[in-house]
From TrEMBL:
The lineage of its organism: Bacteria, Pseudomonadati, Pseudomonadota, Alphaproteobacteria, Rhodobacterales. Keywords: Hydrolase, Metal-binding, Metalloprotease, Protease, Signal, TPR repeat, Zinc. Coiled coil: none annotated. One of its GO terms (biological process) is proteolysis involved in protein catabolic process. GO terms for molecular function: metal ion binding; metalloendopeptidase activity. It comes from Roseovarius halotolerans. CDD domains: M48C_Oma1-like. Its cofactor is Zn(2+). This is TPR repeat-containing protein YfgC.
Length: 446
């Protein structure tokens, strides 16, 4: 799991944000884990199909934040806070959130949002999105949020905020999607029950969800009535139950204390999930031999599961057993040759072993499949530097900083790359793009 404390993936706020928010917002972190993201894809697929959206075209991304919130960015991205996921008790609750956010997409509620935020598949776009989310979580004012988003006027509505009419429409559409997908609509009722009473609190005590998704007693009653009307459409789905247990189980194992995890490791009833959680808990307690033994037992139950090998690779990598880590990640790549996060981890392990040229190949593949992983960009720059290609190292570093919203630093490295790379080359032209973005940001600050 690529948490800040583990593998260190970080998407920072735009530099502009820190100086403009009335209430300083802390940085938000994307939590990138191949196993959890795959599980979310499996859970989302039937709901997205029912909504007329492509299951492969919509990313379900987790934000490492204890607040209870979920939001959409564009037609391609749904964000869920880890705190909200940890509050859920079953797959239907999670699927109801996905259905509701999908309804905001299909009902056209994104049309009025700033055009420049539709690049959220890039890490630069994500930096702005997370800045806005952090502003809302911190209780920043509407004017501050608008500046953080680069809006031209403080009258611009906050990026994530929906009207009550939009919420009511999304509730009705979302429940129809759940019914069509055979998902128990009571999941939506259970989710809304978590937020009851929020609107009685002051704005600064409300969870962000209450500020971005207006709640009311009437709305809750409508959801309950609609859910009851669709109750006969619910079908048991053991596969959804499994993937929910696995995603929440792994998330909680990394975010709760090891002692807490070990006492609850088997609560899901799935033996492989139990062993995976035990492996994470032992790893976080620096008991590597116990961690490896547990994950090996899980692998014995699911020998063709790439994500278990990926977790084994992480345990070994962070225990500085690089050769064994490379072997585990290599097996994961064999089983999932196109998975960007696994490719990136394999490249990182190869680099730790000193196999720099081979590492570069896999890191390039990872970047080509998912350009939002700042850690891959950092490692890729390191492979260029180790091979003496300082121009490309500076270029990739500049692009990484640009993706993180650190445009002043990006400009410095882009200028260095421009001076070192052959004029007119592809790399030189990429450096000019970064320089242009950095200069535009500098002019905007003046």
């Amino acid at each position: 799991m690529q948490l800040l404390r583990a593998l260190g993936l970080f998407l920072g706020l735009f530099a502009l944000t820190a100086t403009t928010l009335a209430s300083p917002a802390r940085a938000l972190t994307l939590l990138r884990d191949p196993d959890i993201e795959y599980a979310l894809k499996q859970l989302a697929a039937p709901v997205l199909k029912a909504a007329g959206l492509s299951p492969t075209g919509v990313d379900i991304l987790l934000i490492d934040d204890r607040n209870l919130n979920a939001f959409v960015v564009d037609r391609d991205s749904i964000f869920i806070h880890s705190g909200l996921m940890l509050k859920m008790n079953n797959a239907a609750m999670l699927q109801s959130v996905i259905a509701h956010e999908a309804a905001h997409i299909t009902n056209g509620h994104l049309v009025r949002r700033p055009v420049n935020m539709r690049n959220a598949r890039t890490a630069a776009g994500l930096g702005s999105v997370l800045a806005a989310a952090a502003a809302i979580a911190a209780g920043a004012g509407e004017a501050a949020g608008a500046v953080a988003l680069g809006a031209q006027t403080t009258a611009q509505r906050l990026f994530f905020v929906h009207t009550r009419a939009e919420e009511n429409a999304a509730d009705q559409s979302g429940l129809r999607y759940l019914a069509a997908a055979g998902v128990d609509p009571q999941g939506a009722v259970e989710m809304m029950d978590i937020f009851r009473g929020q609107e009685a609190l002051s704005q600064y005590r409300q969870d962000p969800y209450a500020r971005t998704h207006p709640l009311s007693a009437d709305r809750f009653r409508v959801i309950k009535r609609l859910a009851d009307a669709h109750a006969d459409k619910a079908r048991a789905n053991p596969e959804s139950d499994y993937w929910f247990a696995r995603a929440k189980g792994k998330l909680s194992a990394f975010q709760r204390s090891p002692k807490w995890t070990l006492t609850r490791a088997g609560e899901s009833g799935y033996e492989d999930v139990k062993l995976m959680r035990q492996a994470v808990a032992h790893h976080r307690s620096s008991q590597t031999s116990k961690a490896v033994a547990a994950i090996d037992r899980a692998i014995a139950l699911r020998p063709k599961d790439p994500f278990l090998y990926e977790l084994k690779g992480q345990i070994l990598m962070e225990s500085r057993n690089f050769r064994a880590a490379t072997a585990a990640y290599g097996r994961a790549v064999n089983l999932a040759p196109d998975h960007a996060l696994i490719l990136g981890s394999y490249g990182r392990a190869l680099m730790a072993e000193g196999k720099v040229a081979e590492a570069q190949q896999y890191l390039e593949k990872s970047r080509a499949r998912d350009g939002r992983d700042a850690r891959v960009m950092r490692d890729l720059a390191a492979t260029h530097a180790r091979q003496g290609n300082n121009g490309m190292a500076s270029l990739v570093t500049s692009e990484r900083y640009a993706m993180m919203g650190r445009l002043e630093d990006a400009g410095i490295h882009a200028q260095r790359a421009s001076d070192l790379l052959p004029r007119g080359s592809t790399g030189w032209r990429r450096a000019q793009d970064v320089l242009s973005a950095a200069k535009a940001a500098e002019n905007k600050r003046r």
